[in-house]
Amino acid sequence: MSAFEVWGRVFDLTVTWIAYYVATINILYMFLTVLGFFALWRDRGVLSRTQQDALLRSPLLPPVAVLAPAFNEAATCRESVRAMLALHYPNHEVIVINDGSKDETLQILIDEFKLYRSGRTPDGTLPTKPVRAIYESRDPIRLVVIDKENGGKADSLNAGINVARAPVVCAVDSDSLLEERALLFVIQPFLEDDSTIAAGGMIRVVNGCTVDGGRVTEVHAPRTLLPLFQAVEYLRAFLGGRVAFSFLNSLLIISGAFGVFRRDAVIEAGGWLTSTVGEDMELVVRLHRRWRDARRRYRVVFVAEPVCWTEVPESLRILQRQRNRWQRGTVDSMSLHRGMILRPRYGAIGLFALPYFLIFEMLGPAVELIGYAVTIFGLATGLISPNVALLFAVVSILFGIVLSLSAVVLEELTRRRYPSPADLARLFLAAVLENLGFRQLHTWWRTRGLIDGLRGKQGWGAMERRGWRAP
Asked: How far is CA 342 from the centre of its chain?
């Protein structure tokens, strides 16, 4: 056998095994999507408006503190804070944490909401960067603004939880737009089972929607391709993956844009970790670890009905920074809690969820990228057969299209938030097109994020906001 034939055999085997690996990922994705469908179908009953109104009058609803870290959010802080204050919930306060903003965020809040320096002091014990001042409003509104030195999002959330007095805290991004009754829906798991320590809600893409007065008044799919691709991604990740992991009581991520926690549980766990860019995932994994080590009954759940609308990047440069950061956060969480992996004492978390994230979410992009590189090089040099290249293309591209289409179908069958047929058509088109270039680019970004994470790179990178546009 010639050297060329030997190398051809090696390339064929390499691509074939990578194809099997990618096929396994996609089969698991499909399993989670199907499981998510049945979980959503089982819980499809939504409280009627009469039941919601009765619950809003109930004395059983716990007070909630909404924590909103803000860094250079001058473009959106007015509308988002007003929207948080206007949430339909009988006993909630809004705590905005100005994390050393260099723009006019603090002054805008002072002027807009008639803030004065308050005598309120933190009563929590979590360490944070120095707090310069705490403000409250002269108007009869439940708004607190903390001005502190810059320490990052996790540090800001810890400062907020120190000042909060409510037993339940809701961590959001300062530019998040919560639907009016989002708190009512996301608090239900805490009412149904007192062992619930954390719950996450649905994140949807606001780009393309009509926003007026800090509220989404008309829902539309994004008009441009990049946000449209992300809208499909969010449907796939939340309605498939997170619903399924929640059903298995092995949810590892509650999005930093909208998560609700028992305050005492977060303080007991030590708060949000400031040395990672994936503080949202790391805290949830740490809660699992602490409660299982103590052999205490608990629940961490995802609720699909409460919706938080968020602005997604509209440029490749900003999106690349975000995805790099997300991948580094996954690396941090896997590294910090590697002792849980394949340990039976951690149940489905240790035996399924963490191995899944390690093998497929953390390492998967690098393996898939190698598959693309080897396939292209092998075809160009004649080292692999066309049948092997076709196998890899089918499992990586065709299966990806099927999964993306399934996510849009799942949205239409269960939640139906896009009323226009034109919007659905755009989502279906994006589900196909994202696998023909965007997915491969995304794979490259995540591989870079994996390498940066393994090297210990820190830092968020700048994010740009365009702000909400009224109709």
From this structure: 25
